[in-house]
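Q: Got a minute? One more chain.
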Amino acid sequence: MRFSRVFLNRLQNQPTAHDTVVVIDVLRSFTSAGIVLAGLLDNTVSVGAIAGGDPAPGFEYGNSPAALLEAELAGRRVVMSTAAGVRGLQRFRDARRLFAASLVCGRATAEAIRAAGADEVCFVITGEWVDRDGDEDVACADYIEALLRGEPAPPEDFSRRVRDSDFGRRFVAGTWPNLPLADLELAAHVDRFDFAMPVAREGEHLVIR
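A: Always. Here it is, folded:
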């Protein structure tokens, strides 16, 4: 199995990946998506965020996994739009296999990739910006890759990197009202869920089940 990485905000310098693509957004899109899937949703509700993490105007919920845990969402389907994770999925929608990933489902993602018999795996890092190192997403990629290589992968090491990343420290600081500490604690919870998040194309839509 061969591995590569691309950074979403440097794509002008990167080739397009065609085999198995894992789009990573730990803080917070695909941590939120894990919360949503754990609730077995149906009927539409909207979740959206703009760059920096503020809620998107006109959406019912922002991109806060802690808030979604408290929401009454049973039996509802979620439409999600975010500036990083969802944009990454759209960019690589033509990949042979496409996964959304975060640390909450890291091991399950590795197991799904292995079960699929992937030859090449490309990790897409979405969290790196001009003012952010994106190490929360790099840590997730490192974790999944280590599992696929059969190398040691102590979960606490990767959880700590999420907390210590540039963006993680903003949640700790408590000065951004839309970046609550509870979201960071959820995002740093390695393998909270035992399911992967494969992404399917259904007409013009990308669907995670």
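A: The chain has a mean pLDDT of 89.
Q: Perfect, thanks.
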